[in-house]
């Protein structure tokens, strides 16, 4: 299962300087943006603090947005959205959450583990406000940490890649070499090698350290994927936010090659429709479910708190079947899934 470091006050300063990215990234500018949509008066006021890319990234942030949209439609009220910049400092993230709390939004959902230090600080200052944090864990009576077993979904992607490659050569592209993205890599490589130990797996990260551009540069994703394809790979899995769209584009240009998407079912993303014939599957991370569950709990007066883990067994992660490209190998994928659920396969969280 996943390993998530719990932040303490003593390590707050250090954590604040840690990597600044989520499993997904962006598609357009780095500029901070905000929007709100009106709803029924007296309804719930939802605050969303996105990581880079925000709504429209076709991946991680969009999944969070779907959960909030569903809640707004069902419960009424309004949504306030603020979006991070790649140049954000820890203080910028603190200010973003503070602004939402001071404006009376509750729950406030911080989309991405880079918000962990900010959530820890701001949640203490606003004890009557409910905070949700995606992809990291912070202790607090008013904090719901929403985490996922990304490595389990990625394992299944590795099995699929191993069964579909015709060259015994596949690739993995990570946005930033953070512990979170390395979970995707670890599961994928394990799934490939458990299926066929002879398959070569190329691994490349697009940015390092505090540079989050690897989650928001389709050109970098395209170049990395093209390099892998030129080197002989014929299946490329990207856990790199909107950079992954560039990888999908590159794969689409090579006959017989497959791309594996991430977070959202990218086969069904309108902006990627012209690449459908090359999107084998996507490792879906149901952030929308976690977000909706949290908002509903606040609406019902019983806010979720603690660490709520969305696993493969609970449907928190899954392998998309859109396009029907997995039909011939579905029995083997189902068998692998069952072994994970039963505990017969322990999926690694580090490479």
TrEMBL record:
<keyword id="KW-0449">Lipoprotein</keyword>
<comment type="similarity">
    <text>Belongs to the BMP lipoprotein family.</text>
</comment>
<keyword id="KW-1003">Cell membrane</keyword>
<protein>
    <submittedName>
        <fullName>BMP family ABC transporter substrate-binding protein</fullName>
    </submittedName>
</protein>
<dbReference type="InterPro" id="IPR050957">
    <property type="entry name" value="BMP_lipoprotein"/>
</dbReference>
<dbReference type="GO" id="GO:0005886">
    <property type="term" value="C:plasma membrane"/>
</dbReference>
<keyword id="KW-0732">Signal</keyword>
<dbReference type="Pfam" id="PF02608">
    <property type="entry name" value="Bmp"/>
</dbReference>
<dbReference type="InterPro" id="IPR003760">
    <property type="entry name" value="PnrA-like"/>
</dbReference>
<dbReference type="InterPro" id="IPR028082">
    <property type="entry name" value="Peripla_BP_I"/>
</dbReference>
<feature type="domain" description="ABC transporter substrate-binding protein PnrA-like">
    <location>
        <begin position="50"/>
        <end position="349"/>
    </location>
</feature>
<feature type="signal peptide">
    <location>
        <begin position="1"/>
        <end position="23"/>
    </location>
</feature>
<keyword id="KW-0472">Membrane</keyword>
